[in-house]
């Protein structure tokens, strides 16, 4: 059973506290869960909206426009579905005590980076090296 960690509404992880202490891990757990909840809610809204919008539109241009909007919405939801799986992976890393550490170097990922991108798995330096290598191989 997890102990309840108190976080005030104004709590922000700070560099001067131990890295990934209970308060920091709880802060990121809540941030990730809130993000996931928002995505899932948006997804449900989209599905119900699409069901409501299913209708016969006689004008070809209007129908094409609606189909384009629908395709764009579905692409967005697909990206969000992939994002949810990354959020779930980050939550698993929290449970396993691996969250916040670069999967390449094992070094801590900066709190600033994690706050901006809580699903990050690499430090900024490792991410940049990875992207440079990817670009080199893509240009071959």
Task: Give a description of the structure.
The chain has 140 residues and is mostly helical. It has 2 domains: 17-99, Four Helix Bundle (Hemerythrin (Met), subunit A); 101-140, no CATH class. It has helices at 22-53, 60-96, 111-116, 124-139. α1 (22-53) packs antiparallel against α2 (60-96). It is flat, with a radius of gyration of 20 Å. The mean pLDDT is 87.
The figure for the number of domains is 2
Give the uncertain stretches in residue-range form. none
- Using DSSP, what is the number of strands? 0
H-E string: HHHH
Q: What is the third-level CATH name, the topology of the largest domain?
A: Four Helix Bundle (Hemerythrin (Met), subunit A)
Number of helices: 4
Say which CATH homologous superfamily of the largest domain is assigned.
DksA, coiled-coil domain
Topology:
Elements: H1 22-53, H2 60-96, H3 111-116, H4 124-139
Q: Tags for this entry?
A:
mainly alpha, Four Helix Bundle (Hemerythrin (Met), subunit A)
A few lines on this structure:
The chain has 140 residues and is mainly α.
């Amino acid at each position: 059973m997890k102990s309840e960690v108190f976080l005030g509404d104004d709590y922000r992880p700070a560099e001067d506290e131990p890295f990934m202490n209970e308060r920091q891990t709880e802060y990121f757990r809540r941030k990730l869960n809130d993000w996931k909840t928002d995505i899932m809610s948006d997804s449900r809204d989209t599905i119900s909206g699409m069901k409501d919008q299913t209708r016969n539109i006689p004008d070809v241009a209007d129908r094409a426009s609606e189909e384009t909007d629908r395709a764009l919405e579905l692409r967005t939801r697909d990206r969000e579905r992939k994002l949810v799986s990354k959020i779930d992976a980050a939550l698993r890393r929290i449970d396993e005590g691996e969250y916040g550490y670069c999967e390449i170097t094992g070094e801590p990922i900066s709190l600033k980076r994690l706050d901006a991108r809580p699903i990050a798995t690499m430090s900024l330096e490792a991410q940049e090296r990875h992207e440079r290598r990817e670009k080199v191989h893509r240009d071959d």
